[in-house]
Amino acid sequence: MKNANKVSCSLELGDKFGRQYRLVINSPDHEQPLFWRSYSHDHLLAMGKFLQSPGLPLAALLEQPPDTLPSQVQKLLSLAPSDMGFALLQAVLSSAQAEQLAAANPFLFILLVNFASTQQISTDKFRLLVSSKRTVILQRLGLPDSKQLIRILARCRFQLIGYQDMRMIELVLKQPIFTQLLSHLSRPSIAVFYLLHKLSLQPQLASQNLIAMLQSNPLLGRALRLGSLVLDCQQLGTSRQQIVQLRSEQQLEKLQQRLRQDFLTRLKLSLQNLDDETAVIKPATRQTLTVATNLLHPQQSYSIGQIQRQFKLGYSAAVQLATRLHSYNLAASIS
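The structure assignment produced for this chain is given below.
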């Protein structure tokens, strides 16, 4: 039963700038759980809004340590960024429907609380939203109202490091191709989301085979590397069909190395043709080839098609390209 008068704790925050500060916070079983007020002596300074943390660790705000909270609440807190603990606990305590959603679909609940906090939604509006159909909640979050997407979120059990992870997950879930692939995974890892996000501008390159390569060792570094290899192969002219048929990271690496070597061979031939026209270009040829080689690195934004178009313009464009890109500190020696 909710108690309108019970206070969890009153914290003396010490003397700052010649004034005594005190924080008073409602207990979890208060009718307005975890709402707080700050005072200087007896003068009210501020009152916390719904989902607004006073800026102290959650453990300091409770009479009992967090590990005495219900196990479902502890699991929820362990999945979210650490500074979301206060907002999540207050949201869970807001209604029985909130508690049910947090237990059944923690990731959907975390995304909802982040949305409500960002939009500064009131307690009453949050209670109304959390009691809505889950497809309606997805719509409010700007995601497709898909039952498939709800099931994907319900199967997620990895830890979110920061708010950027939540934003990344939302962007991935907006791509129908990605949600179709994720629907086949019994327990999606955060590395899979990073891999798919890496391919967000080329979603057709994602495949079950690629995800399977990652699932055997789902590290974030491997996810980003696999995504870079796929994008590099695509830029070097490989068809989607050839990429999605690959079944191992070793096959993908061999394909990328062969394609890069083939491109460099064609590039050298093009530059030799320019050498035949005039001897003046020889110094620039070396510089241009050096810079163009660096452009093949997966992290560079220049596509292979862009480089090829530049070289077709001839000597003047080649020199201009070399000069411009050299200013980006991309030059490196060629082995």
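Interim note for the steering committee: The first helix runs from residue 58 to 61. The first strand starts at residue 7 and ends at 16.
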